[in-house]
Amino acid sequence: MEYPRITKSALEDFSVKPNLQDYQKIYENFSWDKLAQELDWFDSEHINIAHVAIDAHLKTDRKNKKAMIWEGKKGDVEEYTFSDLSQLSNKFANVLVNKLGIQKGDRVFFFLERIPEIYIGILGALKAGGVIGPLFSAFGPDAARDRLEDSEAKVLVTSPALKKKIEDVIPELPALENIVMVQRGKEISDSNDLSYEELMAEASESFDIVKTHKEDYAIMHYTSGTTGKPKGAVHVHEAVLGHYATGKYVLDLQKEDIYWCTADPGWVTGTSYGMFGPWSNGATQAIYEGGFSAKRWYKFIEQRKITIWYTAPTAIRMLMKTGDQLPGAYNFDSLRTLYSVGEPLNPEAVVWGETIFGKAFHDNWWQTETGSIMIANYPIQDIKPGSMGRPFPGITAGIIDDSFNEMASGEEGNLALRPGWPSMFRTYWKKEEMYQSRFQNGWYITGDRAKRDNEGYFWFVGRTDDVINTAGHLVGPFEVESVLIEHPAVAEAGVIGKPDPIAMEVVKAFVSLKVGYEPTDELQLDIQKFAMKRLASAAAPREIEFVDSLPKTRSGKIMRRLLKAKELGLPLGDTSTLEDD
Ligand code: PRX
């Protein structure tokens, strides 16, 4: 079933009027330098994200304010004040530095469920001067290995259940010196592994935060491209200025807010806006450990009295699918503003939010590489349903043609940004050339296509590459193809994104078989299971179609565009002249 569509007249009647501060003034007076003065720097050059997010509040009346209210899948609740998070992250920083020998710049990776220890651990590692890398807990062994191998992580913080998933690839990681296991009552099976709980029990609560330079590396998030393995986008400590500024002016986070971001800390939204944005603004964060459940989510908003909610289009469409009766049983009066990111937010979803919650979803746009929100519908400005909004003050966005000329309003072109904002990625880890290639003629080329209307609102059109966006997660077709061809029956594989009414796209694979294998339903299932085990569940093909052969360029590259055209029933055109690309 598709989500319900709304009538054209409902869309025409829709309007959200300005209701907060005057954003025009912010635009006029905006300066990164002035905003930087609102953060607690060590000196003009040195800043540490964890200090700004947590310890800076200890000098204020927010010291004993709740920073994190965590609710487990089973309904158990844990609460942490800013002071608690400060002490616990100090302890973990001591563990890393004094027990495990972590030095500034060393990579500390996290493969954990959405439990308090991932937040404490990340804060501790940043205090220690480490470069943190969170891995999504749904990753399989291949996905985890690629990232741990490339980053040469020295420490991995994980749990008994998740370690079991990736056990086989640990011997392939020579740089990995220590594995810290968050036990939460579970057994450790390998005596070489360290217990988080035991290490923390012995560690001191006081720690001198490493006075990192604003340009020191702090965060790595792996992101997928069309070719090759995922690449690590690297962010620096100064990025917190971007998290803070957008948290303040886009999400409108205030000290009294109880804020809920549904993103997992394994992805950039889960760190920029699931940790640093809200905490640097002194807001209380509510975190729900579990995944999607309409009932649990509605109850969570009601019980925790959420004021600001940041979520994603697929989740909103899934809520829409469960109907308009269910939300009637809950009270959403606490909600002030709702936000959405990660995929195009269809106008129906914006209007549906207004009907159900009395508040509309504010769509905004950014990327792993940009580190913070770049284009947004602000709480003070009218929302144009279906539009991503307008550039954040301090950000210049343009629509350019392939020769880098700016295009007129209404014309579709490449979405590009003028480089130089605080949370911009500083490199792709060990892939500097690829990083440089993203900057051309004074623009950062985003890889998205969009249009700008004559009021300066941006409208998403699509991507310029073959990367698949499924439920807000980017999936590189090459990664999926590489795993598929490891299956004994598979000769060749070509992977595309197939349009889907809920998840926007789902992964579809076209597979040709080796001689001697028959295209049966069982084999299809077996290949699907094989991919699911190695990649994350979202990256495993939802559909597999057996074909005799795959369309290729003269040099043998699979032409995914043709597979996609075939899937969509579009004319294939004259393929005889297609050059390699
Ligand atoms: O294609 C755009 C899409 O998601 C991409 C960025 O994904 P990722 O690097 O995983 O960043 C996640 C943090 C947001 C973009 O290049 N995207 C993101 N937001 C929107 C969007 N597409 C349409 N509308 C959006 N609001």
What do these coordinates show?
The chain has two domains: 23-30 and 32-452, Rossmann fold (3-Layer(aba) Sandwich), CATH 3.40.50.12780; 466-568, GMP Synthetase, Chain A, domain 3 (2-Layer Sandwich), CATH 3.30.300. Helices cover 29% and strands 23% of the residues. The protein contains 18 helices and 27 strands. It has a nine-stranded mixed beta sheet, with helices on both faces. Strands 4-3-5-6-7 form a five-stranded parallel beta sheet, with helices on both faces. Strands 17, 18, 20, 21 and 22 form a five-stranded antiparallel beta sheet that branches. α8 (160-166) links the parallel β5 and β6. The chain is globular. Mean pLDDT is 93; it is low at 16-21 and 576-581. Bound molecules: adenosine-5'-monophosphate-propyl ester (PRX). Residues 223, 268-269, 341-344, 363-368, 388, 446-448, 460, 463, 469, 474 line the site of adenosine-5'-monophosphate-propyl ester.
CATH class identity of the largest domain: Alpha Beta
Low-confidence stretches: 16-21, 576-581
- Count the helices. How many? 18
Number of domains: 2
What class do helices, strands and sheet pairing give? alpha/beta
State the CATH architecture of the largest domain: 3-Layer(aba) Sandwich
Q: How much is the radius of gyration in Å?
A: 24 Å
Strand numbers in spatial order across the main sheet: 2-1-11-10-12-13-14-15-16
Query: What fold name stands as the CATH topology of the largest domain?
Result: Rossmann fold
What is the tally of beta strands?
Answer: 27
Determine the CATH superfamily of the largest domain: ANL, N-terminal domain
- Distance from N terminus to C terminus (CA atoms, Å) equals 38 Å
User: Could you give a short account of the major beta sheet?
Assistant: 9 strands, mixed
Bound molecules: adenosine-5'-monophosphate-propyl ester
What is the mean predicted local confidence, pLDDT?
A: 93
What is the chains' assembly state?
Answer: single chain
Shape: globular
Strand content: 15-25%
Q: What share of the residues lie within helices?
A: 25-40%
